[in-house]
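Justification of resources, computational component.

The compute hours requested in this renewal are based largely on the per-chain cost of generating structure records like the one below. Each record pairs the submitted sequence with a full structure-token output. That output is archived, and it is also reused by downstream analysis tasks.
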Amino acid sequence: MLRVLILGALYVSTARLGLKLGAIDGVAAAVWPPTGISLVALTLFGARLWPGVLLGAFLVNVGAGVPVLGAAGMAAGNTAEALLGAALLRRIE
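The structure output for this chain reads:
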């Protein structure tokens, strides 16, 4: 549980950094550090940390003004992206 919360906090903090680097409409950025953080965390520590990605992505999007349903969809997409990427990376180890 602690690792999930740490991953969520890392996701939020790096997302805020990414948004400061130049966001389009406050939610889309050319550089998105949380993707790398999520990918590394799920690859090294396992897919069981996915709730941290989901929580972090949801909080960032809601905080950026995205409606709750949209933020939930975006968070699900970010989580699926990290899970699929980690699964593919584990296959080539």
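The chain has a mean pLDDT of 90. The two ends are 26 Å apart (CA to CA).
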